[in-house]
Amino acid sequence: MPLRIIKILLSLFLALLALFYATQNVVNLEPALGAVGYVLGRVDQAVYPASFFPALTHPLLVGGVLALIIGLEYLAGVVLLKGTLDLWRARHGDASTFAGSKQWTLVGAGLGMIVWFGLFHVFGGALFQQWQTPAGDGSLQGAFWYGAMMALVALYIAQMPDG
Description:
elongated, mainly alpha
């Protein structure tokens, strides 16, 4: 039972991580738009100044990308909350019941990995080369930690015996 409680709490913390970052982006909408525009526009990139993919500077595209990021962060958080509730409800069940209740937590963590690995590292880091600037690299490093926490907790919840 103690390991089940730990898994429930970890699922809750993942939900809060996603919801807190999404909400911080909404509360700081103008700076968030500026940061996304900075990356998509390839501003101040001197190390690899050329790219096979064009810079994106149109305000609707920048706003759309930010909306996608925030929307997926909120979606991950809500799905993780549903997963946390499912784990909580199954905490007294047999091993099979508890194992079956992990699905939405794992889906939510997967959505978090899509945001912070897929969007930030694959598109921001590799395609838009955001690692070239201190501001871009800082958000890339943060995204690594958030995505890694999603992955590690998901692996722990999925693989470790439930006690």
